[in-house]
Each structure stands twice: as C-alpha cells, then as structure tokens.
Amino acid sequence: MTIASTTQLICFAVLSVTLVLGALGVVLLPNIVYSAFLLGGVFLSVAGLYLMLNASFVAAAQVLVYVGAVNVLILFAIMLVNKKENLAAIPGLGLRRLLSGAVCGGLFLLLIRVAFTTPWPLPGPAAVGEEATIRIGEHLFSDYLLPFELASVLLLMSMIGAIVLARRDVLSTDVITGELVDQGLIEKERTPLLLEKSPR
Amino acid sequence: METTTVASAASTIPLQAYLVLAAVLFCTGVWGLINSRNAVRVLMSIELMLNAVNINLMAFSDYLDGQLIRGQVFTIFVITVAAAEAAVGLAILLSLYRNRDTVDMERFNLLRW
Fold first, then answer.
1. Tens-place pLDDT, residues A105-157
2. DSSP B34
C-alpha cells in the first residue's frame, strides 16, 4: 500500500511551510517564550517528515526526546532565567546582521548547488518500510553495539555533569573540607552568591 | 512482502526537496546562532541545525540506502547526543546566569582577548 502522490505532495508542502516559518519565528521573534513553543512546532514537523521518509521509529523518538524532553527543558530554562533586560545597544549590529545574512545566504546557495549538481545514484534500493524498526534494532545490537553502549555512558556523564553544574552549593564549597571558598574566578557583580551551606 | 511504504523510488517528491528544506533550516540556525543576544536562543538555534542534519541523514537513508538504513541509526545517535548537549548547555547557562546575572551573549566576554 502506498500513499497517493497527491496526498504525499500536500503533506510535504504543509510540513515544509510549518518548518520554515517556525524556524524563522524561533530565530526572529522578540519574545523567547513564543520562540520556544515554535521550536516545539518545528520538532513536530520534522517528525512528520520522518514519517514521510518511512521511519516511524525515529519519528516517535523525535517526538519523545525533542518535544517531550529538550523542549520542556528549554522552557524550564527560560522560566528560570527570564528577566526583563534592556539589552545595551551595540555599534554596528545592523551591519553584523547584514554580513552574517550574506554569509548564510552564500552557504545556502552552495548547499543548493551541491544538492542539484551531484549525480545521486537514484533510484536506490527499495525502502524497507515498516521493517525499519527491526533493522535499527539489528544494527544497534550488532555493528553499532559499541556506539550504542558509549551513548549510554555519555548520557550518564551528561546527567551527572548537568547536576553538578546547575547545583548552587557545590561550586562554592571546597569539595574536601566542605568550607565556603570564594573561587574568585568569575568577576561578580553582586556578592551574596556564596550561599549558606545547605542542610543535608 | 506487502508493507505500508511511502514508495521512495517512484516518489513524487524528489530527494532534492528534502535537501533544500534541510539547507533552509541549517542556514536559519546558523544566522540565529551568530545574531542571537539571548543565550537560550543560541541553544535553540543549535537544535535547529542538528535537526537539519538529521533531515539530510534520513532523506539519504530512505532514498539511497533503503535496505540497510544506516542513516536512521545515525539519526538516533544524533538525537541522543543532542539531548545530552541540551542538558549540559542549559546547566552551564544557569550557572552563568547566577554568576553574571544576565543572559546577554555580549556580556559573556571574560575570556575575550
């Protein structure tokens, strides 16, 4: 069973419009909360594209990990650091935007040229379709076993690292003696950053 | 074997459409990475770029490597690393915010020559 080509075209058009507009909104909107929600929309439309590319497992992983975890994490970070801030004007900001826009446009043209001039060996072998999940499982437990295990180590490391970095008291107390130390590494604008040692 | 498949060989959507879409997403992400003043938005731009790369991997996996689908496995790994990156990046951001009381990228200049 294949999806009719018109349906396929309509789906692709809708998903790409959502994707591009959402990405522009993430970058350009002044309110960061709107940006975060639009980022969720971008992740969802990318998951839709994965579904069109016969990859139901990766689409589900995208929704679970990106929309469910990363986006929520970003929203929490916004809530924690959201402070009305009057950004100081920088001389030459408009020029910088124009220049970086030109650089990005050039990069875009380069990528387009590569995409259209490379002789892709099409049509490739037939897609496996719904068996993709089985194939991924076989890959993960045979030829990609070492990266798979390393990924679990990486996740553990990043979890511990995130906890250590985001905790308040670890960085300001000596690990061995437990006394408060002023590290003096970072120039501080206000002093009461050294907190009381929290009761354990 | 009869499976539900979006027929990629006879697909109405060419491979290049996905590549162009990913290129747009990537360039938007690069522009946002350079020009954002808010550190959280910088992290969001990085996520956009990672997603653009993932779209490329998935498109190649479906159109050129339909039997082995190594691109999908790579995408799984990229998603894993992106999740770890987001967690550590936001923790660093929180720590910076506590010390400098701002999220303005232009004021994180302690190590700047």
1. 999 999 999 999 999 988 888 888 888 999 999 999 999 999 999 999 999 99
2. H
Report DSSP state, residue B89.
H
Q: Which residue has the tokens 């020009």?
A: B35
Question: What does the pLDDT look like over B46-72, one tens digit per residue?
Answer: 999 999 999 999 999 999 988 889 999
Q: Model ipTM?
A: 0.90
Q: Which helix (H) or strand (E) holds B28?
A: helix B15-35
Phi, psi of B102 (to 5 degrees): -155, 160
Distance CA A72, CA A47 (A): 17
Strand partners, B104: B38
Cβ within 8 Å of residue B5, ≥6 positions away: A1, A2, A54, A127, A129, A130
Give the residue among A72, A71, A18, A69 at the shortest CA–CA distance from A46. A18
pTM tops 0.95, yes or no: no
Interface of B with A in 19-48 (CB under 8 A): 19-21, 23-32, 34-41, 43-45, 47-48
**Structural contact between residues A127 and B49, judged by C-beta atoms closer than 8 angstroms:** no
Nearest to B5 among A24, A76, A129 (CB): A129
Alpha carbon of A177: minimum distance to chain B alpha carbons (Å): 22
